[in-house]
Amino acid sequence: MTSAPATPRHARGQHAQAPGYADHKADHVARLNKIEGQIRGISRMVTDDRYCIDVLTQISAAGRALQEVALGLLDDHVRGCVTDAARTDPAQAEEKFAEFSDTLRRALRL
């Protein structure tokens, strides 16, 4: 499955600035690299005909690891992007809060 390239913030009509996760970027990338290795390991498990429950356990662990990265990014977004918008531009703050709410709703599948 391929995904569309990320649209830069300034291309979406917003101010060009560092993303909210800039201070934690290295941490997020390190965790994602570990998850990538974990996924490759799961693929090897299936290739090697490993026991179903063992494969499912690893899939569950990878999913939880991705959720932790997502929570970290959401936290960075609120502490950075949303807070900055609230301080500087009420209209943009409303937009950021709505965006955050929609993202949270999708993440929680509500």
TrEMBL record:
This is Transcriptional regulator. Keywords: Copper. Pfam families: Trns_repr_metal. CDD domains: CsoR-like_DUF156 (cd10148). Belongs to the CsoR family. The keyword 4Fe-4S does not apply. The keyword Coiled coil does not apply. GO terms for molecular function: DNA binding; metal ion binding. InterPro entries: Metal_Tscrpt_repr, Metal_Tscrpt_repr_sf. GO terms for biological process: negative regulation of DNA-templated transcription. Residues 1-25 are annotated as: Disordered.
